[in-house]
Amino acid sequence: MPVEKSASGGKLKALFLGLFIAGAIMLIRYTPVKDFITAEALGAFLRSAGYWAPLVYIVTYAVGVCLFIPGTLLTGLGAAIFGPYWGFLWVWIGAMIGSAGAFVIGRTLGREFAASLIGDRLKKYDEAIQRNGFATVLYLRLVYFPFTPMNFGMGLTRVRFADYLAGTGLGIIVGTFIFTFFIGTIKDVWASGNWGELISFKVFFSIALFVFSFFIPRIIKRVKGEQG
Fold it and tell me: Which structural domain, as residue segments, surrounds residue 105?
């Protein structure tokens, strides 16, 4: 009886997880809420927050990650409003909180059911992820594995929360900095109206970093292949 209750409880939680994800996607894409999830609307909302804008932005980013709002929109918005450096910091904090929240949701609602589906064949992989959680998460972040699906998906595995958080924190630093630095730099030039600044080391450096970011997954995979 306890086993049956546990199995049925896991299925019920998994159902709630599925409903949560489906509901979040429906809310953002097919309801009037989608009209507020634009760069213009969110930008105006954040600017109206004044002194509290960074905190409001961090909360918005964290909630947005859990509701499947595109991270590129939120990241670009942060860089455009706060600049390349503060933008990077607020984006990174918001992404960390959001990824932690999504992981906890996935772990709480989906892990039990996922574990019940794992047979002997998959068990060794599940255990391997637990043993090498930090390295696995770090690698997947560096090769730009889809951010939000990975947040929820990792919650279904045996990876330790501390390993997940550390791997995520370190793994998203490079990509986050490159993207926010690029957007923030272009925004600063646009806002100043001094188009001569487009021909500067800072702008060319930001463009070079942005282009380089597309090659990071290939570099990581090649290094991993050579080590293997």
Answer: 2-172
Tokens at residue 137, please? 């998460």
pLDDT band at 3 (very low <50, low <70, confident <90, very high): very low
Q: Confirm whether 49 is domain-assigned.
A: yes
Rounded to whole angstroms, how far apart are CA atoms 18 and 111?
12
Name the 3-class secondary structure at 133. Answer: helix
CA distance 161 to 103: 8
Alpha carbon distance 163, 182 (integer Å): 29
3-state secondary structure of 109: helix
Is 202 exposed, middle or buried, given 0-12, 13-18 or 19+ CB atoms closer than 10 A?
middle
Note whether 78 and 43 are within 8 A (CB): no
Q: What amino acid occupies position 46?
A: L
Q: Check whether 197 has a pLDDT greater than 70.
A: no
Domain membership of residue 50 (yes or no) is yes
**How many other CB atoms sit within 10 Å of the CB of residue 178?**
20
Q: Is residue 221 part of a domain?
A: no
Q: So what's the pLDDT on residue 108?
A: 92
Q: Which residue from 150, 144, 149 is spatially nearest to 215, judged by alpha carbons?
A: 144
Q: Which two tokens stand for residue 86?
A: 């503060």
Angle separating helix axes 120-131 and 133-142, nearest 10 degrees: 90
Q: How many domains does the structure of the chain reveal? A: 1
* Contacting residues for 78 by C-beta, under 8 A, at least 6 apart: 57, 61, 87, 90, 91, 94, 180
pTM for the full model? 0.81
